[in-house]
Amino acid sequence: MITEIAPAKINLYLHVGGVRKDGLHDLASLFVFTENGDRIIVREHDVLSLEISGPFARELDGFPVQENLVWLAATALCEYAEEKFGAAIELEKNLPVAAGIGGGSADAAAALRALIKLWRIQISDDELSTIAFALGADVPACLARAPVHVSGAGENITPGVSLPDLWVCLVNPLLPTLTGSIFKQFDTDNPSPNSPRLYLSQCRSVDKVAKMMAATKNDLEKPAVSQTPVIADVIRFLSDQPNAIAARMSGSGATCFALFSSAGDASTAAETAKSKGWWAMASKLAIG
Length: 288
Prior knowledge:
This protein folds into two domains: about 1-160, Ribosomal Protein S5, domain 2; about 165-285, GHMP kinase, C-terminal domain (Alpha-Beta Plaits, 2-Layer Sandwich). It has nine helices and ten strands. The chain has helices at about 70-80, 105-120, 125-135, 140-145, 180-190, 205-215, 220-225, 230-240, 265-275; strands spanning about 1-20, 25-45, 50-55, 85-90, 150, 155-160, 165-170, 245-250, 255-260, 280-285.
């Protein structure tokens, strides 16, 4: 049995540009990852199967297993190896679905890592990245589980800035957002957006993290709030929490986050958010 954590992906900032010829948007972002998240468990088996459990499993009930990114990751590896491997895969779904924290992408990346070990597949980093990008633009970055700069449409990945020890409180108002609709609204509101730029200054102290957050933004926050106004309430709530360094929406929402320099402050914020009926999770950020 092999177990891999599929952590929540957080965009500390997300700068969005125009639509490329391939229909994808140019982006510039700093991805970071939590230590907690979904779990992928794989066991040897004669045929391929996928079981979904956990608190958010029901959200995926209406979708065929064969359309899940975990299943697609498994079949992509079989095609690469030109073998018909079997495995019993369990996806423990602890993170909300359609939430802006890369749940499906992180699940796919964790499945790739686990199945490569189970099936003893020899594959280069470049070949693995190609398979991952074909599954989804965020999947290559989710393979890293460490801070990474992401540009292009997600295919250009370089090591991210150095960060101090940080904890995060994630809050979701239990409302899904549709990524395509958010991007469409962004395009309507920004017919000629600037080319997105990465923030490359080092952030080894909490003060420098705060400076980075003040100098950047999430370009999808405004269109997301226009479609799901409660996101603004969540951001205000997080901003008001004691010792919060900064608060922002992640990805296309609706999950928002606040950064903290202590586990206690992040946990207190999460418990307060839960008392409002929202989903919340506190976690240390993985720094590599």
